[in-house]
């Protein structure tokens, strides 16, 4: 590795799924890969904070945590010096200058170089200025005769780092990323990399993490472009993958990138395929990484629970998904039929637990003790809370065949926005799968899944969500003849307003100027503002938009501001 004469560097870009906090397991994965690629590649490229998983958030304030990271890096360095491993670039947080740096390390026999992250993102889901200190502007590092320009995530998104590397004579840029997915993100990344390529004239490797971490979904989709800006390789989305590229000097002496794969370009899913795949990955990794055995949910015969059930089956397989239908007096025969048809389509277990006795005995006890007879909204919410109680009790109960199943809640972004949900009722659960998916997209996703099954989905071919569930009018069925549109605008209108109001931060007048009724806009604004206390108590859910509740949109609960 001391030879400085220019020659080919075969790089393996490893798109893997680390677990935050699982330092020993993550390092074991890195070393196993390094052993497997020894003599097959010259350099492994892993991703941002791979040693710890990403994002680490406030774990970096724990001295014992950082001590374990230091030990892990020493273990990698010692193993590398002992021989039999492929050199690697790997990310980890470390102590520097009285703070903590988000750094990359080039580790090879006799080589241990640290490159610190200079640009710290502090927007959307990122709070890196809270946890990290800013490093110096990166400089190239020598490896196998080439000057490698190594950047950590945001340092590629901003022009300063790439420009400094180009000015210092870098031959190639290698970027380690923990870039979470959102609708349209692949195009945003490609446009950014194209800009850096045009500015510097350098080939660029973009290595991205894959996997779910709480609300964040990392799709991978790693890629590389050559000096001319052409896409050379593209990894799978929402899956583990490895890209092989050759970095070598051309006839003009300038280094460039070429693919060493037979089929170097993997297709990127379309919009609905991307959203659905992100939800599947989010459920799968949240269940797996938190040690749950499976998932359970209330199945109502409506579109939201049907889609969540399909997602759960694609994530976990039908044997690890448990549906419970909990009818009351207002539950229609159609709802029960649709619920059973869904279970048959998906191949899941479905049990029926009526809630009439639970609701009416509770109402009777309240009335006997207080002379207060629960009615209207209070009685409706009692039904939702009885269902939540049943689901959480079954989830908590030990000693049965479905022990360790986590409850999935099924409210969508439209309902979450306007508070059309019951605290401690249908909001119960460990994950709210559709929290960042508007109702109109719920319908579109159900139709998409009925027509598509991508690699890695564990559910059936063909129709998953019954057609009747998609076409029927939505209803919570908490009162006789109830329909969602009795208290909400039609969902196409509501979602149009909410996309502007929530995702776009538009004011009432701006939204009305788009053609929406001003009174309806004011009503939706009032519902949105009043429901903040509910959202703060809701389960986390996969982030698939640029403006999710919790990670992105943060407003106070106690808030006297009301838009005129």
Short overview:
With 564 residues, the protein is α/β, with parallel strands linked by helices. It has 18 helices and 20 strands.
* Strand neighbour order, sheet with most strands: 5-4-3-2-1-14-15
**Which consecutive residue ranges, at least 5 long each, have pLDDT under 50?**
none
Number of E-type strands = 20
Q: State the share of residues found in helices, binned by percent.
A: 25-40%
Whole-Å distance between the termini?
A: 68 Å
Structural class estimated from helices and strands: alpha/beta
Tell me about the biggest sheet? Answer: 7 strands, mixed
What radius of gyration results from the CA coordinates?
26 Å
What is the helix tally? 18
Secondary structure topology:
Elements (H helix, E strand, L loop, with lengths): L8 E7 L7 H14 L6 E3 L17 H20 L5 E9 L2 E10 L2 E6 L11 H4 L9 E3 L2 E7 L1 H4 L1 H9 L4 E6 L7 H16 L3 E5 L1 E4 L2 E4 L3 E3 L5 E4 L6 E9 L5 E5 L11 H19 L4 E5 L4 H14 L4 E5 L7 H14 L2 E4 L3 H15 L5 H21 L8 E5 L3 H6 L12 E2 L6 H13 L15 H5 L19 H13 L4 H5 L5 H13 L1 H5 L28
Parallel strand pairs: 1-2, 2-3, 7-8, 8-9, 16-17, 16-19, 17-18, 19-20
Antiparallel strand pairs: 1-14, 3-4, 4-5, 6-7, 9-12, 10-11, 12-13, 14-15
Characterization of the model:
Helix 7 crosses helix 8, helix 7 packs across helix 13 (439-451) and helix 8 crosses helix 13 (439-451). It is built from 18 helices and 20 strands. The longest helix is centred in the C-terminal third of the chain and has 21 residues, at 376-396. Strand 4 and strand 5 (111-116) form a beta hairpin. The strands form 4 sheets. A 7-stranded mixed beta sheet has the order 5-4-3-2-1-14-15, with helices on one face. A 6-stranded mixed beta sheet has the order 6-7-8-9-12-13. The protein has helices at residues 23-36, 63-82, 128-131, 154-157, 159-167, 185-200, 271-289, 303-316, 333-346, 356-370, 376-396, 413-418, 439-451, 467-471, 491-503, 508-512, 518-530, 532-536, and strands at residues 9-15, 43-45, 88-96, 99-108, 111-116, 141-143, 146-152, 172-177, 204-208, 210-213, 216-219, 223-225, 231-234, 241-249, 255-259, 294-298, 321-325, 349-352, 405-409, 431-432.
């Amino acid at each position: 590795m001391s030879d400085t004469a220019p020659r080919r560097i075969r790089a393996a870009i490893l798109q893997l799924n680390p677990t935050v906090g699982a330092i020993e397991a993550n390092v074991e994965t890195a070393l196993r890969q390094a052993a497997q690629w020894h003599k097959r590649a010259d350099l492994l490229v892993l991703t941002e904070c791979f040693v710890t998983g990403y994002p680490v958030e406030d774990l970096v304030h724990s001295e014992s945590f950082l001590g374990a990271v230091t030990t892990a890096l020493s273990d990698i360095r010692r193993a590398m010096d002992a021989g039999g491993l492929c050199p690697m670039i790997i990310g980890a947080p470390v102590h520097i200058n009285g703070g903590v740096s988000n750094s990359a390390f080039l580790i090879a026999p006799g080589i241990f170089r640290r490159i610190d992250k200079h640009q710290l993102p502090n927007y959307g889901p990122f709070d890196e200025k809270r946890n990290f200190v800013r490093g110096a502007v990166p400089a190239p590092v020598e490896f196998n005769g080439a000057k490698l320009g190594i950047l950590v995530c945001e340092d590629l998104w901003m022009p300063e780092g790439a420009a400094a590397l180009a000015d210092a004579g870098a031959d190639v840029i290698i970027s380690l990323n923990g870039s979470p997915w959102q609708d349209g993100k692949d195009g945003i990344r490609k446009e950014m990399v194209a800009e850096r390529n045009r500015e510097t004239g350098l080939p660029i490797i973009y290595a991205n993490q894959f996997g779910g971490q709480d609300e964040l979904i990392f799709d991978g989709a790693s890629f590389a472009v050559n000096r001319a800006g052409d896409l050379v390789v593209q990894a799978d989305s929402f899956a583990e993958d490895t890209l092989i590229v050759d970095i070598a000097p051309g006839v003009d002496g300038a280094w460039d990138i070429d693919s060493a794969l037979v089929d170097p370009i993997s297709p990127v899913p379309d919009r609905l395929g991307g959203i659905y795949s992100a939800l599947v990955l989010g459920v799968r990794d949240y269940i797996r990484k938190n040690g749950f055995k499976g998932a359970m949910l209330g199945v109502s015969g409506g579109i939201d629970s049907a889609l969540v059930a399909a997602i759960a089956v694609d994530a976990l397989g039908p044997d690890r998904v448990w549906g419970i239908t909990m009818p009351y007096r207002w539950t229609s025969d159609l709802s029960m039929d649709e619920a059973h048809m869904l279970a048959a389509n998906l191949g899941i277990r479905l049990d029926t637990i009526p809630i009439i006795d639970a609701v009416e005995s509770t109402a009777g006890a309240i009335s006997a003790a207080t002379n207060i007879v629960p009615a209207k909204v209070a009685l409706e919410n009692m039904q939702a809370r009885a269902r939540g109680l049943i689901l959480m009790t079954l989830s908590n109960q030990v000693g049965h065949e479905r022990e360790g199943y986590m409850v999935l809640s099924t409210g969508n972004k439209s309902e979450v926005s306007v508070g059309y949900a019951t605290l401690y009722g249908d909001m119960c659960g460990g994950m709210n799968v559709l929290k960042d998916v508007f109702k109109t997209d719920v319908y579109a996703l159900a139709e998409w899944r009925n027509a598509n099954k991508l690699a890695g989905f564990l559910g059936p071919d063909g129709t998953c969500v019954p057609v009747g569930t998609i076409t029927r009018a939505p209803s919570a069925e908490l009162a006789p003849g109830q329909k969602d549109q009795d208290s909400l605008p039609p969902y196409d209108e509501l979602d149009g307003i909410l996309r502007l109001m929530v995702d776009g931060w538009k004011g009432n007048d701006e939204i009305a100027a788009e053609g929406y009724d001003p009174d309806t806009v004011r009503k939706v604004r009032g519902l949105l503002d009043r429901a903040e206390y509910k959202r703060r108590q809701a389960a986390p859910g996969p982030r698939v938009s640029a403006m999710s509740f919790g990670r992105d949109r943060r407003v106070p609960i106690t808030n006297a501001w009301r838009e005129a």
